[in-house]
Amino acid sequence: MTQDPMEQNNLFKRILENSNTAMLVFDQDLRLTYLNPAGEMMFALSLHRIEGGNLHALFADSNKFIANVELALNSGHPFTERELAFQLPNQRQITADCTITPITSANDNKTLLVELTQVDRQLRIAKEEHLLAQHNATRDVIRGLAHEIKNPLGGLRGAAQLLQAELESEELKEYTGIIIQEADRLQNLMNRMLGPNTLPQKKNTNIHELLERVRQLVKTEIPKGIEIKRDYDPSVPDIYADPDQLIQAVLNLTRNAAQALKDHGSITLRTRIHRKITLGHKRHKLAASIEVIDNGSGIDPDMLDKIFYPMVTGRAEGTGLGLSIAQALINQHGGLIECNSRPGETIFTILLPLEMS
Predict the structure, then answer these.
(1) Residue 346 — very low, low, confident or very high, per pLDDT cuts 50/70/90?
(2) 68-85: pLDDT as tens digits
(3) Does position 190 have pLDDT exceeding 50, yes or no?
(4) To pair with 32 at 20 to 30 A between CA atoms, which of 4, 25, 309, 356?
């Protein structure tokens, strides 16, 4: 039985309106003629508000996307681009897979169907999984290395002590003393590389009280040209955590930020609530975030994927253990530390699940 054209059109419309993919239709002058509900959610604008809007105005800061649309229109060939960065009219930045399909009607009028599938969440989950895998692999390597170093180190120290007891010359005892001191220094370094060796002593903890303590500690250490700002969300509830371990983690991040600024700049401590967030492989209804933001020169892109490795540092005087230890402390709470950096803004984000465990 042949379907009625009107009924068929209604069916196609219902399919578009129930799709989870944002679909935009532009005419040959690149004016928006249709936007489905998924697109309205992505843009946070209704079709009524932006219908007739020009492509260049809607995606003013997305030059690569505009060039792809124009290429598809002029060539008549469909175009697909993966993980394309967009800036939407509300200044929100997203990453989406994009498919552009030119459609020519019977009277040679051209229409463009643009499909946008947001992939920010998938990319974020993949990044988190990489961070966790990186941390676990590094921890296993460091534990094996530390075991191999600590055994002969203990023997070396013991032998130096025995030798020192047999020596009568104070001048020679100075040399054995140096051996013992350096052995102790290496032992402490190994212990720090291994990270926390005690389980968190969790209790209900107010994270803003912790941040105030960190702020007071860091204020006594930094130059006067560095300002520490607060941007707290009062709706963040108490978190079930070890307060001492959280203070240590935030302190490491804040000191890093201060060292990156040198003598001038600002650090912002910010808290927020996130809903329906995935940390590692576990989905959480609620999570708290603590952000340490500085307005310094940023982290070298080549360093960004390595900063949580032990002994990796961009400073000649640094040990490269602060971020690794902070990540280990937060991992013990089922959380994660992420980093995003560009010139003028570096953000370290601590994400902690709010469910009691």
Answers:
(1) very high
(2) 888 888 888 888 888 777
(3) yes
(4) 4
Residue 51, pLDDT score: 85
In this prediction, residues 39-56 reach a mean pLDDT of 82
What does the alpha-carbon distance between residue 25 and residue 89 come to, in Å, rounded to a whole number?
Answer: 17
The mean pLDDT value of the chain amounts to 81
Sequence letter at residue 297: S
| Nearest-angstrom CA–CA distance, 76 and 252 | 55
DSSP alpha helices (H): ranges in the chain? Answer: 5-17, 37-43, 47-50, 55-58, 63-75, 120-166, 170-194, 207-219, 243-261, 301-304, 322-331
Task: Give buried/exposed letters for 108-143 (b at 16+ CB in 10 A, else e).
Answer: eebbbbbbbbbbeeeeeeeebeebbeebeebbeebe
What tokens were used for 353? 């699940």
Which one-letter amino acid corresponds to residue 299? Answer: I
SS3 279: strand
Distance CA 241, CA 288 (A): 12
179's tokens:
């051996």
Strands 282-294 and 265-279: antiparallel
Sheet of 110-118: strands edge to edge? 32-35, 22-27, 110-118, 93-104, 79-87
In the prediction, which pLDDT does 93 show?
76
pLDDT value at 126 more than 90: no
What is the DSSP secondary structure assignment for residue 300, as one 8-state letter? -
As a whole number of angstroms, the distance between CA 51 and CA 348 comes to: 39
